[in-house]
Amino acid sequence: MDIRIAGLALLISIILSGCNSNSESSDNGRITIVTTTGMIEDAVKNIVGDKADVQALMGPGVDPHLYKATQGDLQKLTGSDIIFYNGLHLEGKMGEVFEKLAFQKPVVAVANSISPARLRKVPEFNNNYDPHIWFDVKLWQEAVKEVNRYMQQYDSANASYYQQNASTYLKILDSLHSFVQKEISTIPETQRVLITAHDAFGYFGEAYDIKVMGLQGISTLSEYGLRDVANLVDYIKTNKIKAVFVETSVSNKAINAVVEGCQQSGYDVFIGGNLYSDAMGAKGSADGTYVGMVRANVKTIVSALK
Asked: E strand or H helix at 261, and its extent?
């Protein structure tokens, strides 16, 4: 514990010393923005357009629950004009870093504007709220609106530009929400069960009427045991579930244990495909945007369960 505290103190001292150095803002005069996840990066880019340079710390396949900032990350954070992060303890290991940086520059949690009444409180997550808000497209729109609100406040000269971009993007997200509703409804109700490694899809389940079950808890830091695997195997067999899913940012070990347990019990369940949970696809690919990620997930789920 003393080693961890000492390490955190060193990290914070590096950040604070960096804040006193010259900013690494873009030479082109645009605002420099750093985000944690790719989903937030994509939302910000859709709002700011060509008025800012935006980059995410966490790329494809990265688990934000376990992420630790590198020296390069610290340089990006200290050299930025604005930082956008998710909040709700998603970036657990970076929370104190953001608190310290907030004394030096704007550090905005996009989830802060969402009413607690719309959030899922999870007893197993120290009674905190589920941070995976992007899996309900309507809820994610609130995060987009928070980015828009803040950018208009920060750069009022371009407020109308940000508002126009936000209005356009929110309409795209309205269409995406309708698409998800329509596609998930085509799965027979008895098969409308989404089983993954960790409990990231709770908002998705509530928004689109599909039962969600995860072997681990909200955070991938959670442990699972033999009893958890056995209970899930029994549920799959009893309800004749066709498929389970792995996640691109989480180890396959947990789900493989469930599949093997089913096979040993005489029931064949297959892996229905890879789902994007805490990170999007590769940059430049169809799945490397928020809209593309959601559409890819829905296609994979429907194809395996329908």
From this structure: helix 253-264
> Model confidence over 169-226: pLDDT tens digits?
999 999 999 999 999 999 999 999 999 987 889 999 999 999 999 877 555 555 567 8
Asked whether 59 and 285 are in contact (CB, 8 A), the reply is: no
- As beta bridge partners, residue 193 has 211
Average pLDDT estimate for 115-140: 92
**Residues spanned by the domain of 145:** 2-179
Nearest-angstrom CA–CA distance, 213 and 209: 13
| Per-residue pLDDT reduced to its tens digit, 252-299 | 888 899 999 999 999 999 999 999 999 999 999 999 999 999 999 999
The residue among 120, 122, 111, 86 whose CA lies nearest residue 216 is 122
Q: Residue 18: which residues within 8 A CB-CB, separation 6 or more?
A: 74, 75, 77, 78, 79
19 with 158, same domain? Answer: yes
- Give me the phi and psi of 195, to 5 degrees please: -115, 120
Query: To 10 degrees, the CA torsion angle through 298, 300, 305, 306?
Result: 70
| Domains of the chain: total | 2
Instruction: Please check whether residues 287 and 152 belong to one and the same domain.
Output: no
